[in-house]
Amino acid sequence: MTSFHIVHLYPDLLNLYGDRGNIMVMEKRCRWRGIEAILHTVNGDDPLDLSTADFVLLGGGSDKEQAIVCETLMQFKDELARYIDHGGCLLAVCGGYQLLGTRYSSALGELNGLGLFEFETVAGKGGRCIGNVVIDTDLGFEVVGFENHGGLTYLHGQHPFGKIRYGYGNDGSGMDEGLHEKNCIATYIHGPLLPKNPKLADHFIATALKRKGELTPLKTLDDTMEEEAAKIMIKRCATEKKENPYISR
After folding, report:
1. Tag placement on the chain: N or C end, fewer CB within 10 Å?
2. Burial 147-159 (b: 16+ CB within 10 A, else e)
3. Is the Cα torsion angle 154, 166, 245, 150 positive or negative in sign?
């Protein structure tokens, strides 16, 4: 039986927006296909070894929790960088997204990020970016979800996760959302993300299996309910956008 190793980083601190739901989706979609999903949870002073990892989740938390996790992860920065450079699949959500950059300016002061990517996040002064999001990705499908962030992230040459069709996005401008470099996707979309977007979960599974040399196509699952829910949300957002836009473009 094919095994699929899932690593959940610091869920005791970074689980502000139901990030465990992303883990549950990955486990279920693997097992429904006869793939053995093996979960590794890393907390506190646990060592971090990603040599067998197929998928890594770094969730979101408050500024205080982010600072604690960032300090802990600094000692494993090379391990994370090596994993990403070698094509490992990583999903970083909200606070986890911000930690991957060079710095994060928050109400608690200046926080040095892991510096795995050249971007920075600063505290927004115009209120929080809150509401539904619809983005067009280069993966061949749309992604829907919910954003709630006070930080504004500015990419410096990195490829965004998607183009905003509806919502605020990285810096509140309504242009780009998230980051997509190699097999790493970082995003402000949560709530959690993967239950609403099973195609994205399958993208991670297929990419990780290909990295392991498993080239068999994934068994098709019935995602009718999720697809219908996404269509309703997209239609609703399109109507709301005309009547009461999130932002002035």
Report:
1. N
2. bbbbbbbebeebe
3. negative
Would you say 168 and 174 are in contact if contact means Cβ atoms under 8 Å apart?
Answer: yes
Degrees (nearest 5) of the Cα angle 3, 52, 178?
Answer: 95
242 vs 37 pLDDT, higher one: 37
Question: What is the predicted pLDDT for the residue at 126?
Answer: 73
pLDDT at residue 247 above 70?
A: no
Which pLDDT belongs to residue 249?
33
* Mean pLDDT for all residues in the chain: 91
- Find the mean pLDDT for residues 232-248: 67
Out of 70, 89, 94, 184, pick the active-site residue.
94
Q: Which residue has the tokens 């949560």?
A: 190
Contacts of 35 (CB under 8 A, 6+ apart): 1, 2, 3, 4, 205, 209
Angle at 211 between CA 209 and CA 138, to 5 degrees: 85
DSSP 168: -
Active site residue 190: yes
Strand-pairing partners, residue 143, are 135
**Domains delineated in the chain:** 3-243 (3.40.50.880)
Q: Are 93 and 16 in contact (CB under 8 A)?
A: no
The Cα 83–Cα 114 span in angstroms is: 14
